Amino acid sequence: MNALLHGRLTGLLALGAVIAVLPAFLPNNFYLDIAILAGFNAVVCVGLNLLIGYAGQISLGHAGFFGIGAYASGVLVGSYGWPPVLALLAGAVFVGLLAFLVAKPILRLKGHYLAMATLGIGIIVSIVLRTESGLTGGPDGMMVEPFRIFGVELYGEKVWYWVVGVFLLGVVWLSLNLIDSPMGRALRAVHGSEVAAEVVGVDTARFKVLVFVLSAVFASVAGSLFAHYTGLITPAKADFFKSIELVTMVVFGGMASTFGAVVGAVVLTLLPQALTVFQDYQQIVLGGILMATMVFMPKGLLPTLAALVPARRRA
Questions:
Q1: What is the pTM of this model?
Q2: Nearest of 138, 137, 155, 136 to residue 146 by alpha carbon
Q3: Which GO terms describe its molecular function (predicted)?
């Protein structure tokens, strides 16, 4: 256990070091922008990994929570003059309550029934955002006011890079602590066997709802900050394809691996940019890479690579 905790601490320090030194190797704001987008995706994937990787509960609608958070900030700040911090918190509370209400019935389902139910949630959110044009701007989206805190406006890629970097570190730290807590052990028990977990006294329904709400709140806060950073949000950020993209990042990086979720989000955010040299064949090459990874690295990218590193001999 001490070795495991040491490894997680080392990983957290390594992530912090990468975030700290990375700007020195990024030549311009375009690359900073890509790094920021990767950070937002990583935050959502860390939360989604708690749900999928540790609790074993699939969700194909998490982009809906990301979109609600984004539009909550956009509408409350732009149309009603709320302070951005208060709008962000209000969006997170609303998403948390919504996730709690829908989690109670749908998490009783299993397998493809659960997948279809979560997919339905995402589709409903996407439809509402597209049709309520008077409030959300419809398919064209809406402009979002800059993020201000204590009268100071967060502006520019360099500032936002550090905001997102610190946010990601905080989410990863929280996730690692949760995994080592009684709740984390309960989630792993639920993933292994719900029946066995209930036999030993684990309230499986309660823990599944809690992790679903927590992962939804992570997505909401990321969506709010994303909206303020980009200054423009559209319903595309809450649709089915975005949800599939997020799940793919988690699976690609390695389920039940917090750092794997970060790696998966970063790689699949950067990879499409690197594959632009293939022009019309970009999506075909990307699909081929994903299939090859799943065939030869079924546990995900990071766990497979970590298994190749010789373990230290125990003292």
A1: 0.94
A2: 155
A3: branched-chain amino acid transmembrane transporter activity
Half-sphere exposure of 43 (CA within 13 A, CB side): 28
Contact criterion met (CB below 8 Å) for 46 and 175: yes
Q: Identify the residue whose tokens are 């070795």.
A: 3
Helical axes 204-230 vs 84-106, angle rounded to 10°: 150
The two tokens of residue 86 are 């208060």
Using only C-alpha atoms, the chain has a radius of gyration, in whole angstroms, of 19
Q: Who contacts 250 (Cβ-Cβ below 8 Å, separation ≥6)?
A: 45, 48, 49, 52, 53, 260, 261, 264
At 128, the pLDDT band (50, 70, 90 cuts) reads: very high
The whole-angstrom separation of Cα 110 and Cα 58 is 9
- Segment 223-230 mean pLDDT: 97
- Judge contact between 301 and 254, C-beta under 8 A: yes
Q: Cα 129 to the chain's mean position, in Å?
A: 20
